[in-house]
Amino acid sequence: MLVTWRYRKRRSLVQSFDPRAWIIFYLCFMGVTISFWDVRILAILFGLSLGIVISSGLTWRETRRAWLFIGGFIIYFSLFTFLTGRGGMEFYTEEHVIRNVQASFTLFGWRPVLHITVERIFYALSMLVRVFSLASMTILIPYSFNPAQYGVTFRGLGLPDKIAYAMDLTMRFVPTYARDFQITMDAQRARGYEIEKLRGGLLAQVRKLAPLIVPVTIQAIAGSEDIIDAMDLRAFGIQPRTWLEELHYRPRDRALIVAGVGCFLFSLALSIYGVGTFWVPEALKSLPLL
Amino acid sequence: MDRKMLGVILTLIIVFAFFLGLVYVGGNMLGVERLQTGERPLLRFAFVGIGLVAAFLVYAFTKENKAWVVGTREVVYMAIGAALYAVFSYLFNGTVFVVPSVSQVALRPAICIPMFFGFAFGPVVGFFTGAVGNMVGDALTGFGLYPQWSVGNGLIGLIAGIPMLFADKKKSLDTVLIVGAILAAIGTLFFFLFRTVPNTLFYDPANNIFGDQPVSLLVGLSIVVGFVLVLIVRFAFGKNIDVAAAVTWGMLGNLIGLGFAALSDIWINGYPLPVAIVGEFLPSAGPNLIFAAILVPILVIAYKGLQRQTGR
């Protein structure tokens, strides 16, 4: 049985475009975002992605789990980067101190000190905004991309029929196998298997993962025979394929593609010439060095 | 040479020439810093082109073989393989299940999927499983896409599927082992020459580690441990040639695919050669060999049982 992504037809900005145009725009948006580390530019991109999310018609209830998971991880990671100062070393060589906070206790004679510097704050901010922009746009895809149009969209993006259909099936199978994995894990847990508490050496631990990997894989292959038969009965691959739904570009779709590709090429050019690199306000550079 | 083949070759040459031109004209002549690649840009950049062309040549020289045919069955297996690889990569990437690492070796067993699918269903299925599965897995995790690593993962599946080109799968196994031994020896030699290189793939924020801790002894030697395990499987399953071939070719695919991805980072990320090999290649390829030697045989044996049961 196939489990589907949580797609629902909505009146939204995202779904008002041809899915091919939206995929191209999404890829361009990713390209633009990863071209920059300047928090001012990233803030604009973040605002854009937030606007798209708000206009997408998704409710908090529907997407709560995804937001909490990704949001929690990003905030956790950014916070550690800020506290330790690690990760930003390749972007700055000196740090300007705003405040040094000393702990009131010592550990074996060592007193922990937190250096709050301009560079650490702006690096953590840049990372937070950058990853949130990418994640916001990515979260939208399963909720706004009609599963019935996966195949025709990939075909429309220039892939051969068979590869487009394989991509279509891949996207459809992902939630199904995630569900199968969960069921298998529950069944194994009922027998006392606990993945979080694997014991033994490295080799023993790898071997103990087999009760999860093997049943899901073999069940997927065994279940594929029905799909193969159904496709063969419909003479799959004998002639160029027709699709149940047809996609046609409208002027607004073309405009979206041109805007996306244009922005990407412009960003690439700016990035190559060193524009949009890590930025901190000049006024704060007068603070004492660490 | 047919038109299709000529078209593909021309496209590869044009893409290669374009990037090479970009490096020379933009980097060396115009002095654009972001396009400069060090003292020997041609040699460094050539690795990316060599990886792609090598994969294509395997196809070009054997394109008449029916292993390259893509029918209904292959399309479905491509989708299953890619979806499974994506799901397992997502689940075992350290964010969903927190399975503790053993001395920097993270337990990521998903790599057995492209190896197994490549071996069982052919090089095209293997390549698709590795490349698309890796991309979808990265997208599910939400931390961006790394195309050269997806191509590297595709190469793992493609090379694991090469035994299908031979009528006798036993053929050339010894040669593959020798090539694997040489590659593993080179990797280990680099480890002993550059002991202070950080493990760029090991992140453990809870313990203040952000890809900056020197490669541990276990990671540095994991490629040797993995190779010895592959050797044991090869000879312990001497009579079950399917298991021996799956593990042996999977090993070669892993070494070449991830070697390609790591070396391409010399140009893409500007890593020095020791960082690419010790900091990227060993931490990824070494543990993978261990997973391959243990999990791939189990999958092959289970699949043979399924084949006997269904008669297909």
Q: Would you give an account of this structure?
A:
The complex is a heterodimer of chains A (290) and B (312). With 290 residues, chain A is mainly alpha-helical. Chain A has one domain. Chain A has nine helices and two strands; from the N terminus they run H-H-H-E-E-H-H-H-H-H-H. Chain A has a two-stranded antiparallel sheet. Chain A is flat. Chain B is mainly α. Chain B has ten helices and two strands; from the N terminus they run H-H-H-H-H-H-H-E-E-H-H-H. Chain B has a two-stranded antiparallel sheet. Chain B is globular, with a radius of gyration of 19 Å. The interface between A and B is large, with 64 and 61 residues.
Mean pLDDT of chain A: 85
Per the principal axes of the C-alpha atoms, what is the gross shape of chain B? globular
Q: Compute the gyration radius of chain B: what is it?
A: 19 Å
Oligomer: heterodimer
Average pLDDT rating of chain B: 79
Count of individual domains of chain B: 2
Structural class of chain A: mainly alpha
Largest interface, with Cβ-Cβ < 8 Å?
A-B, 64 and 61 residues
Radius of gyration of chain A: 25 Å
Summary?
The complex is a heterodimer of chains A (290) and B (312). With 290 residues, chain A is mainly α.
Outline the fold blueprint.
The complex is a heterodimer of chains A (290) and B (312).
Chain A: H1 19-34, H2 39-54, H3 60-84, E1 97-102, E2 113-117, H4 118-144, H5 150-156, H6 161-190, H7 202-207, H8 210-233, H9 251-272
Helix pairs in contact in A: 1-4, 1-9, 2-4, 3-4, 5-6, 6-8
Chain B: H1 3-29, H2 41-62, H3 72-91, H4 112-121, H5 123-141, H6 147-160, H7 173-193, E1 203-204, E2 209-210, H8 217-236, H9 241-268, H10 273-310
Antiparallel strand pairs in B: 1-2
Helix pairs in contact in B: 1-2, 2-9, 3-4, 3-5, 4-5, 4-6, 4-9, 4-10, 5-6, 6-9, 7-8, 7-9, 7-10, 8-9, 8-10, 9-10
